[in-house]
Amino acid sequence: MTGPDPSSLIHDLLASDAPFALIARDDSTVEVLTGTVVDVELLADIPLVDADGTPREVLALVPYRQVRERGFVCHDDGAPLRCLVIEERMPLPRAEVMASLPSTPVALEAAGFDIDDEAYADIVRRVIADEIGRGEGANFVIRRDFVAGVDADPRVAALTWFRALLEHEKGAYWTFAIVTPGHVAVGASPEAHVSARDGIVTMNPISGTFRHPQGGATAETLAEFLRSTKETEELFMVVDEELKMMSAVCSDGGRITGPHLKEMSRLTHTEYMLRGRSTLDPRDILRETMFAPTVTGSPMQNACTVIARHETTPRGYYSGVAALFTPNGATEGPTHDLDAPILIRTAYLVDGRLRVPVGATLVRHSDPYGEVGETHGKAAGVLGAIGAIPRDAAPAAAPDADPDAPVAPRRPLAEDPAIAELLASRNERLAPFWLNPQDPDDSGPFAGRTALVVDAEDRFTTMLAHQLRHLGLDARIVHWSAAADADVDAADLVVAGPGPGDPRDGDSARIAAMHRVVARRRSRRAPLLAVCLSHQILADQLGLGLAPLPQPHQGLQKSVDVFGEPASIGFYNTFTARMPAVVPDGVEIAADPETGDVYALRGDHVSSVQGHLESILSRDGMRTLERLISAAL
User: Fold this and answer.
1) Angstrom distance (rounded) from CA 595 to CA 580
2) What is the pTM assigned to this prediction?
3) Which residues of 329-353 are buried (b: 16+ CB within 10 A; e: fewer)?
4) H/E stretch holding 262
5) Distance between CA atoms of residues 187 and 345, nearest Å
6) DSSP for residue 542
7) How far apart are CA 268 and CA 70, in angstroms?
8) Under 8 Å CB-to-CB from 592, ≥6 apart: which residues?
């Protein structure tokens, strides 16, 4: 490097073979990072200190295959956990950097999706029928790739695309170009996955995608999108999934703020912000939050299994993160801050092949061709910006407009009163518990008692445990495979948790284990609360019939009667227990008077609920949870 002059610096980057990264995180600065590359196996191996123990800054590209650290399945392509150990950081004026970057368009050859539209629509149908329809989860993100040949120098292509994204894409959280040996990643990610600074962890779930009509978005066209039940519930489901992660890494669980709009060049998204306090090492925070449900699905573990069934090729870095670890000077607690956007809206260039992976979030009422269109819109956001496809034209001026009059900047759509009202109205449906600060309450109604939460592979249990602590219980979580009889017997209260799958599946070791937990507590007349899947297992043991619902209730909010008290509760179930002709002795049943769907049970030291009282969709969740625990105790 010859110095901080942008023109000379860009010339040197193009002329050398050294790795580098350019990152724009605001409207005025581009950070130029240079250093050495180290590939490591585990997140814990990210080299945050040198041989002398001195903290150092690291930019890590975390591939999707890293989910193996959490025991989840994936197509393993061997993509490295690549670390750029930063030796020099140079913040430069954005305008000067842009002026120095190459601008000649990079030609693409044989461009198109690797999976055609009809084949992708068929995948959507199969996921809805075979996965969501069988209780495997609430939503899943299945990707396809836009691919093309590129006959250009990779460094020239990277810097050309970076300039184009800076110029033509707006609203990105990070715009970046990361060039390492044999690999180029250039993108404009709209979404921060997780950040940690001064003990505050922030997550930014974004979901719901409004594709701008030709000529640009208007308040009227956006309002129609915001009224969509499908788009609204899609966002709520990913917020629930990220709150599971927040509750795992934050002592105070996490508080929701929003919703907000994320306005970009071709797309507008809806988003929330989640914040909580944590003292964990940022690498541990990253591990516990791998990866965002907005690009995988929920519940997370089963989403990875579903992805492996329906995606035939590895993901590479798509849906992973770019994680920047920066020393913060702390002498106690975490020594690094973390800033980690999701690797979406990103173009990859390897061995002369461009790949732009995109995915759609598939839910119970997805339209296959609508999801096809969503993948086109997301790919166009990157491809249009870099000039690979025609860019949208600016909105036409009114016929009587003065052509010489200065053009006023367009007001953000979020400032339109009707749009602001539509956004704010969404929170009327949500649980106040998660909209306000929360802390464990040593004086809660169940103070001094212990609770064991048995996790059946749905991390809603982390949110449940947080609520139990708020009610005064000393709660801990144990995986179903590690729920020893002695631990199950010792707890004052056992909470048998939710999970994916068919409760009638006699071949599932997980469901068999949950049957044993429920039966063991019942046989000892020991307090038990069973939730969702475990509620169905309890119902089965009581002799109630189980059946699939005509339409899955994944992410559905319902007002139901729970033993004489109305409650607004969120449901994530595909199967249900049905009201029997003869009610078992000593059991009370709360059920739908028309369908017979059983919403709750209570009896001898036992309570259960089909819905998720911990969900943001459960406005009356805490009140109902306290009532059911009181009945069990």
Assistant:
1) 12
2) 0.87
3) eeeeebbbbbbbbbbbbbbbbeeee
4) strand 255-263
5) 6
6) T
7) 32
8) 560, 599
Length of the chain: 633
Contact 359, 295 (CB under 8 A): yes
Count CA atoms closer than 13 A to 294's CA, side-chain side. 31
- CB 85, CB 47: distance < 8 Å: yes
DSSP 44: G
Q: Kindly state the tokens that stand for 489.
A: 């017997």
What three-state secondary structure class fits 100? Answer: helix
Examine the residue annotation and report whether 376 is marked as an active-site residue of this protein.
no
Contact 205, 293 (CB under 8 A): yes
Concatenating the DSSP letter of every residue in 57-97 gives: -EEEEE-GGGGGGGT---------EEEEEEEEEEEEEHHHH
Residue 579 token pair: 């009201």
The number of C-alpha atoms within 13 Å of 48 and in the hemisphere containing its C-beta is: 21
Instruction: For CA atoms 299, 304, 309, 312, give the dihedral sign.
Output: positive
CA distance 202 to 105: 37
Catalytic site includes residue 532: yes
Q: Residues 66-107: pLDDT tens digits?
A: 999 999 999 999 999 999 999 999 999 999 999 999 998 899
Q: How far is CA 306 from the centre of its chain?
A: 16
Name the catalytic one among 269, 376, 515, 612: 612
For each of the domains in the chain, give its residue range(s) and CATH number, in order of start: 6-390 (3.60.120.10), 429-632 (3.40.50.880)
What are the CA-CA distances from residue 617 to residues 143, 426, 572 (Å)?
Answer: 28, 11, 10
- 173 near 16, Cβ under 8 Å? no
Q: How far apart are CA 301 and CA 290, in angstroms?
A: 10
For position 616, what pLDDT does the model report?
Answer: 96
Q: 172, 203, 196: which is closest to 30 by C-alpha?
A: 172
* First-to-last C-alpha distance (Å) of the chain: 70
Rounded to whole angstroms, the Cα distance separating 328 from 332 reads: 11
457 catalytic? Reply is no
CA torsion sign, 592 to 597 to 600 to 603?
positive
Please give the Cα distance from 552 to 572 (Å, whole number): 8
Phi first, then psi, for residue 620 (nearest 5°) are: -105, 25
For residue 601, what are its two tokens?
Answer: 């049970």
Nearest-CA neighbor of 558 among 534, 590, 587, 528? 590
Nearest-angstrom CA–CA distance, 450 and 436: 25
∠ CA 610-306-323, rounded to 5°: 100
Rounded-to-10 torsion of CA 322, 326, 330, 335:
40
Model pLDDT for residues 325-370, shown as the tens digit of each residue: 999 988 888 899 999 999 999 999 999 999 999 999 998 889 999 9
As a whole number of Å, the CA-based R_g of the chain is: 26
Residue of 269, 532, 535, 553 with catalytic role: 532
Return the structure tokens found at 536: 């169905």
Q: What is the three-class DSSP state of 506? A: coil
- Give the pLDDT score at 407: 43
Which backbone phi and psi does 25 adopt, to 5 degrees?
-110, 0
